[in-house]
Structure formats: structure tokens, C-alpha cells
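Per your request, structure below.
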């Protein structure tokens, strides 16, 4: 869509939003794009406008919570929030120039805008309203699954992330320094336990079983106490039974973590728990993590991709990748020259059919849109309609259907194990 009067100014404009589907027959999950509350924040290294390099995990390992303001230079609500000065005031008290107990950073996250717009945007010079670390990065939007601008994340030293918005939940105003400090240091990022406290931080291995005999679990443990952590055991629990107990030894100071590869579990496991056991542990509520593993379902080896183009087909492409990540089938479409955004052309508003036969195995289907609005129909002059992508197998089973603005709303996951008797199209 190019009728900007109909697009909220906080709508994401991201270069490479993608749908990933671990292909399987008619089994689907819809996941919102934003990071799940309490999930592990992805690490990143970024250089700010002053040339200083910052690594997220290095900052968190110092025990500092991180406030991350992801904005776009054209975003009015982003500018209005920056003008309040509350993050500047918070940084003065708790940042490097204050007691150095927290870190605040703003990142211009729209890949379609250049770094020069930070000082020359239509809204104003962003360097005059943001005086804490300010950077421009084209990849952070993908990394942090942006759905809208502004997005403000609070990341705790245990690496858990929470979207906190521009003001307290249930309130009608912006943060104040006092309410923000309460949110950061008390409500969301509590201090470590005085004494011994081990935490099962995350499960870092596969969540979809697509054939094969075993799954290799990987977990991360963290010291959330003030005393050094030197040993523990990690139990793997299936159907209420402890099937493995892994002994860990090492040295973890407060907020330090270690990623551990555990003994394999059967590939047909649907529910598994990992329980951390440590002598003298003062807090048991963070010792266990429950994981649900989903399964591939058998389906047909012949695949039909029906691509119904919108008015801007050159923005959209797709591919199918095997379990090694290699592209085995793909297509892209031709730009037009009907307007300044390369609309129209021979592929616009047309149906394109693609057929392939895949060997037995697991695959991912990925669709990309460089503008970030999926296949939203052009409405500026009334021309065009929403596009769509429909994936079916040789038996006519619909594996995927996406249409309209799929570029910022959800992630669709499907799974496919292709082993059935073939029936050609």
C-alpha cells in the first residue's frame, strides 16, 4: 500500500520481514511478531553516533538493566516521547554520568531511512532531543521482531526482555523518572538473591521434531544470587520421570551464565522439563523450565506455490530451504515503473504458479517483503488488490495461506515431512 493517509505512522517499514514455516500438513501456529515477554533478548553489538561500541550481553553481565528505544525518524509518537526528556533524565541519574546502574540506548531501526535523517528528518534533529547513546542500525528490527514504532524494551541482567511502552501499564501518561526507576529496578528487574540462587534461564534447542531418532537439548543456567555458583545438577524429566541427571561444575559470578548441552532425548518426546538442583539454593521458583516439542506430519512430496502478486511484486520473494539451510526452490518478481515505488509492471496483479518435487526431509518456506507491508493492495488510485501466497501439496492439502499485510502482524509456522506416495499435479 502506498496511500500513507491510511497507514499508521508507527507502522513498521522493515526490509526483510519473513514468514518461516517448517513445512507440515495442515498444522499451524500463529505467533505475534514482538518478542514474547520473559523471552531471552537476542545479543547484538552496535556502534553509536559517537563511535562507541556496545555489546548487549557485556552490559547485562555487569548487572545493568538495559532500556532499548527502537524508533524511526519519521515516527511522530517517537519524537513526542523523546521530547519529554524522561529517558535523558533517567540516564543522567542511572547511566554512565550518574550511578552507572543502568544503560539506556535509542536505535533508529527503519532500514529505509539513512543515518543522515537523524539530524535532518522532517520532524527535527534527533540529536537535540536524545543525549544518551544514539545509533542507527538496519538489522535490529529483524533481530527484535519489530511490529510497530516506537517499541521500548526493558532487558534485565538475566537477559529476559519485556516491552514496557512509553508509560506505566494502565496509565494515561508518559513515564516519569520515578515511575520508570520503579519499573526498572523493582517491578521488572529485581535484584539478585542475597546468597545462593541458581536459575534455569532458557531452553536453546529445537522445538520442532522432524524425523530422526534423538533431540539434543541445550539449556542455559544463570547465577541469580550474590554468592559464587560452582556446581549443580540438571534433571531431564519426561512424563514425571527423571531420565537423565547431568552434573555441572564451574564458576559463575552474579549474572554470569553457561550454556550446557545435555544428554539426548527421544525425538518422539512431546513434553519435557529441565530442573536445576543445587545445594543451598534459596529460591526454587526459577529452577525449572517446561518445554513443548511439536512434530512434523507426513505430507506429499509435490509442492505447488501459487503467488498472487499485488501492485508491487518486486518487493516480495520467497524460497524453500532444506534442513541444511540451502535454497532448493525460489522465486522473485519484476519491478515496474508506474510510480516512484516501482509499482506495476508485467508481474503486478498476476497469478504465478510454481511446482516442484522435493525429496523426503524437512524444509522451511520463507516469504520476504522489502517494504514491510506484505502484499497489501495498492489503493492510492484504486488500482490493485491484496496479494497472497498459497502453498498446497500434491493431494490438494493447503499448507499455507497468507494475504494482505502479513509483513508486520504474525509469523505462521507449518511443518512437513514428505514421504507419501506421489500423485502428480
Amino acid at each position: 500500500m502506498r496511500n500513507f493517509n491510511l497507514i499508521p505512522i508507527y507502522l513498521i517499514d522493515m526490509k526483510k520481514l519473513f514468514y518461516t514455516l517448517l513445512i507440515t500438513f495442515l498444522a499451524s501456529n500463529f505467533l505475534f511478531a514482538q518478542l514474547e515477554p520473559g523471552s531471552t533478548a537476542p545479543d547484538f553489538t552496535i556502534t553509536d553516533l559517537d563511535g562507541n561500541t556496545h555489546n548487549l550481553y557485556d552490559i547485562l553481565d555487569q548487572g545493568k538493566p538495559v532500556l532499548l528505544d527502537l524508533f524511526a525518524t519519521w515516527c511522530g509518537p517517537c519524537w513526542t516521547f523523546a521530547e519529554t526528556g524522561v529517558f535523558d533524565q533517567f540516564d543522567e541519574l542511572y547511566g554512565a554520568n550518574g550511578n552507572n546502574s543502568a544503560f539506556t540506548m535509542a536505535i533508529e531501526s527503519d532500514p529505509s531511512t539513512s543515518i543522515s535523517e537523524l539530524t535532518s528528518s522532517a520532524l527535527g534533529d534527533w540529536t537535540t532531543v536524545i543525549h544518551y547513546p544514539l545509533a542507527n542500525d538496519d538489522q535490529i528490527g529483524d533481530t527484535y521482531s519489530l511490529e510497530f514504532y516506537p517499541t521500548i524494551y526493558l532487558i534485565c541482567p538475566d537477559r529476559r526482555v519485556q516491552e514496557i511502552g512509553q508509560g506505566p501499564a494502565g496509565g494515561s501518561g508518559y513515564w516519569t523518572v520515578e515511575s520508570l526507576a520503579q519499573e526498572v529496578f523493582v517491578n521488572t528487574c529485581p535484584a539478585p538473591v542475597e546468597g545462593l540462587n541458581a536459575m534455569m534461564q532458557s531452553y536453546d534447542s529445537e522445538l520442532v521434531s522432524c524425523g530422526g531418532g534423538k533431540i539434543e537439548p541445550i539449556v542455559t543456567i544463570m547465577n541469580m544470587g550474590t554468592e559464587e555458583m560452582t556446581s549443580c545438577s540438571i534433571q531431564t524429566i519426561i512424563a514425571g520421570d527423571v531420565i537423565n541427571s547431568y552434573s555441572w561444575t564451574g564458576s559463575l559470578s552474579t549474572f554470569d551464565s553457561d550454556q550446557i548441552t545435555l544428554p539426548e532425548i527421544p525425538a518422539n518426546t512431546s513434553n519435557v522439563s529441565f530442573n536445576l538442583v543445587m545445594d543451598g539454593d534459596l529460591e526454587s521458583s526459577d529452577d525449572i523450565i517446561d518445554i513443548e516439542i511439536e512434530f512434523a506430519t507426513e505430507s506429499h512430496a509435490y509442492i505447488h506455490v501459487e503467488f498472487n502478486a499485488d501492485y508491487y511484486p518486486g518487493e516480495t520473494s520467497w524460497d524453500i530451504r532444506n534442513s541444511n539451510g540451502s535454497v532448493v526452490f525460489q522465486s522473485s518478481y519484476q519491478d515496474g515503473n508506474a510510480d516512484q515505488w516501482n509499482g506495476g509492471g508485467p508481474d503486478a496483479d498476476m497469478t504465478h504458479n510454481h511446482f516442484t518435487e522435493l525429496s523426503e526431509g524437512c524444509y522451511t518456506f520463507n516469504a520476504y517483503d522489502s517494504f514491510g507491508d506484505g502484499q497489501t493492495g495498492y489503493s492510492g488510485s484504486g488500482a490493485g488488490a491484496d496479494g497472497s501466497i498459497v502453498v498446497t501439496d500434491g493431494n490438494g492439502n493447503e499448507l499455507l495461506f497468507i494475504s494482505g499485510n502479513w509483513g508486520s502482524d504474525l509469523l505462521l509456522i507449518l511443518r512437513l515431512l514428505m514421504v507419501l506416495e506421489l500423485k502428480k499435479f
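DSSP finds six helices and 30 strands in the chain.

Regards,
D.
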